[in-house]
Design brief:
Length: 392
Amino acid sequence: MKPEATPSRFGVYVHFPYCLSKCPYCDFASVVAERIPHERYARAVVRELEGRAQEYGRRGVESVYFGGGTPSLWEPECVATVLRAVDELFGLLPGCEITLEANPGASDAARFEAYLEAGVNRLSIGIQSFSAPVLAGLGRRHGPEEAIRAVETARRAGFENVSVDLIFGGPHQDVRGAVEDARRAVELGPDHVSCYGLTLENLAEDVRLAKEVRRGRVKVADDDLQAEMGERVRDVLRAAGYHRYEISNYATPGFESRHNTLYWVGHEWVAAGCGAHGFRRLEDGRGLRYANPRKPDAYLTAVETGAAPEIEREVLEPAALFEERIFLGLRLARGVDLEAAARETIGEVPARLWEAVDELARAGLVARRGSVVACTDRGLDFHTEVALRLLP
């Protein structure tokens, strides 16, 4: 059995905002575009990376993630251009995990082969469901057969690391449907499965599906039904050999997402592109987070005129970093080492925090192994409530 993949120690995130249509539940920085400025956008991303390299220095990259939007719409040569720039500026280390998100509707074999040749070695395919009514309710343009074909095409193209995304709790879905989606995903044999409950609250923007639900025009699963769906889906995935290493992520051993885990353990990453968010540590123990414009035109204009492509730059004090390490680290099934997190931020773990850990342990929501605190399965389902009890 392969050991669990180690978190990337330093990564690069590149956001590609263009889509063929806007899903009604999506709050990511994305726009519908009939004509995509492939090369112009690639030049802007490279130019931003050149500026970021002056801040971060040459570090050695262990993961690159192309998110979106629909990155599988980007011309493979543009992806290759960006990866060459990352290598020249930071250095791609041997074994670097390079992920590209793909939609089933843009998954012809030649294109997947071109991405592999460009350097991508991991595909994350946004299937969401194998039910035509559910896909329609989520505003997805592909059908069940295209979803199956996308995974099969990725394998034929030579990808040895394939992840699929599922969403449960959406319109037209019941518990049986959620279970069936998980079973059909397992039959395709992906190495990794991300399985999310539909979320329509506390998003970056008020999405169309949330408005329709409030108006009573669309019905989605309530909290209790969604919890039941999640429990049944977990049973299917575990029976098939996938272990839950994060709240919504499952993998066969060794295929955990190294890049996403980077976020949850508090490591640094460079971010480039419209709507991208990056993080780096400062020499005085504080942290710096920055965010780029969510609109492509604003981002492109800023980069091309030599302006800083940011709409937000926030300095985080050690206490805030410690709280983040708790909140994000508890997303992982392996938990968070509170003493290690404190040493890197505030110095020592407050005594009150250990008292709160003991209370949560008695309630069956966390387990403690020395200084490591991890949510139980039940605790992961109530992650936010558990984390808030521990935040100093």
